[in-house]
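Example 9 (inverse folding). The structure is encoded as follows.
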């Protein structure tokens, strides 16, 4: 139990094979119908559940249908419109600024390069990767959210600690054709089984190759701390 395969390449391949079998329909869980809605939803999803974002955007996307709408919005009203989203006041500022930049520099359209996306307020590399992958069908990196960060360390796929370094490390070992789906697979597994505080190792399809298995490991490699 809990013994990773000899090489990191082999470990990655086995993790992917098993998770593809376990979660054949793993996909992005945010609701959107166009690139702008995708961008807004991903910005709102930072430190907030996708379920909550989908609840809020159901009405938001009916009220704000263009970048110009966000640019012209009253920031306080916009904050009220996304109330319930984590850090809604800050994110309202991001959305308004983002709308202004899209109108002024991109004719109201969502750009399709990493540099242009990360120049927008509230958009880091993780958000830009999601927008590129699902809005433009451009895969040039791996989206590292909290689930990917946690599970990639727990499973011994990386020893890096920051999202940026984890992404670069995973890109060296994960086949490029799997970059996009790796994120969805790890998110699905993180939500279903391998949660942050109390992973259900007894129900995990990866338990026998997981060096963090609570069955025979004293340490959670995601945090470096002892299991409680």
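The amino acid assigned to each position is listed next.
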């Amino acid at each position: 139990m809990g013994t990773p395969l000899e090489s990191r390449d082999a470990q990655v391949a086995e993790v992917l094979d098993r998770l593809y079998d376990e979660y054949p329909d793993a996909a992005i869980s945010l609701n959107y119908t166009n690139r702008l809605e995708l961008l807004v939803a991903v910005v709102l999803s930072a430190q907030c559940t996708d379920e909550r974002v989908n609840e809020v955007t159901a009405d938001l996307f009916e009220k704000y249908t263009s970048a110009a709408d966000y640019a012209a919005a009253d920031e306080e009203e916009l904050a009220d419109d996304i109330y319930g989203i984590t850090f809604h006041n800050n994110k309202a500022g991001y959305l308004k600024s983002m709308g202004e930049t899209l109108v002024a520099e991109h004719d109201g359209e969502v750009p399709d390069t990493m540099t242009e996306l990360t120049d927008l307020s509230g958009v880091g590399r993780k958000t830009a990767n999601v927008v590129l992958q699902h809005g433009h069908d451009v895969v040039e990196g791996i989206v590292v959210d909290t689930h990917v960060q946690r599970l990639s360390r727990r499973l011994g796929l990386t020893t890096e600690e920051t999202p940026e370094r984890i992404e670069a490390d995973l890109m060296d070992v994960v086949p490029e054709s799997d970059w996009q789906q790796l994120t969805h697979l790890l998110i699905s597994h993180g939500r279903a089984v391998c949660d942050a505080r109390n992973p259900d190792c007894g129900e995990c399809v990866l338990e026998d190759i997981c060096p963090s298995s609570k069955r025979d490991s004293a340490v959670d490699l995601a945090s470096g701390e002892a299991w409680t």
